[in-house]
Please model this.
Amino acid sequence: MSSIVDRNEAVEAEGEGSETPSRSTAAGAILVVDDEHGIRSFLQRYLKKTSALVETAENIEEAERLRARCHFDLMILDIRLSGAESGVEWLNRLREQGENTDVIFMTAHADLETAIDALRAGAADFILKPFRIEQMRAAVDRCIARRKLTRENFVLRRQISQFYDLDGVIGDCEVIKELCGLIKRVAPMPSTVLISGESGTGKELAARSIHILSGREGPFVPLNCGAISSELLESELFGHAKGAFTGAHQAREGLCNFAHNGTLFLDEIGEMPLAMQTKLLRFLEDRMVRPVGMNRELPVDVRVIAASNRDLSEEVAAGRFREDLFYRLNILNMRIPPLRERLEDIPVLARHFSALLSKELGMPPVVLDDDELQRLQHYSWPGNVRELRNVIERSLLLGKRPSEGLNQVQTARSEEETGPGQPRGGEELSLAELEQRHILATLDATGGNKSEAARRLGVSRKTLERKLKSWAGEEGEEE
Model:
């Protein structure tokens, strides 16, 4: 054992004579635990040059006394210590007690099993003796930097959780207040969430809110299941091997891998082909990813949030959606109400979009007096919040009042109405009929251009085509 000390002390002497230690190591408190005096002395002298505090201990009992007096950002720990417990056993005990301090293990007697045990115990790094001082310095730098980032992320997430309501899900009505409360309640849980609601209601915004408030360290990865062909959807989700299919010139990871430790958002999941639904169900059950063209499976830690503008229970009854997948997703169903059910939120939403977009476009805000807001509240908004945003942006670009961009024939209610659902002339219409008239009038105004009509309405072309198809089917039944 003395040869190890001699070699390290030689490295130290060489380092002091020819090289200044890196200043990149952030100031922090470090505890060195090793039963060799030479190792302890060497590391203490070197690490003190860049760290605020470096303490040393000969055994676990001494280390416990030091830990009782001071919080350490990092521990450098020998695996084989004198005493009843090994370094790995001690770390396992600390982890059970809730201790999350980073640990760098050192050992002169390494084998694969020892390394695996150390990593399973939660070691941040594993260094063999004798080591070069550059190895230790790099390992310490990484651990201290990671610790700093973890703390900064915690503070940022706390700040976001306090103020997110102001910039995220906006509204004063009771339904939105309840929705915000539900988002905060379920966000820290790993459970799958199914979000339902019409196009443009803000389903992705709700999903992002859940992710931000969840505390998960990984990214938020969205995927629109209706925007990708069924042939490519499996590869997009799970990745593929090189040569797995024509055009697969190199291996590629899927979105499930990119979402590791984060959230995978599957938008418009009702559009997913039945064959792919089977594979998604298997993934939800075991959280194992099998890339296309590979036999091996890889575990991932992913929280799944799905969304649909269709009633999935009706899709199940029609045979277009797997019943077992529906029940697997429908652990918690979160409904986002359409804008026509929360008309009292139009003033706050309109002012929010006016302030946000006027700043982005460098233009003065739109006029939103009481009369103008009342006109906006008399509109059916089939495109929901997305359509309202589009109307505000269009009014900024054209320099007109938002209501001037609304076709009065399409207005759901006017100041002359005598009751809900009664346009001028006293003809009673349901909201569905008003929506149909509005969409057809917009389509007529664009000369039958579905893409332009969808843009004006604030919905996707696929949603518009689906509504037109359903109405055509209804007319056929009546005939």
Summary: Residues 1-26, 161-167, 408-427 have pLDDT under 50 and may be disordered. The radius of gyration is 31 Å.
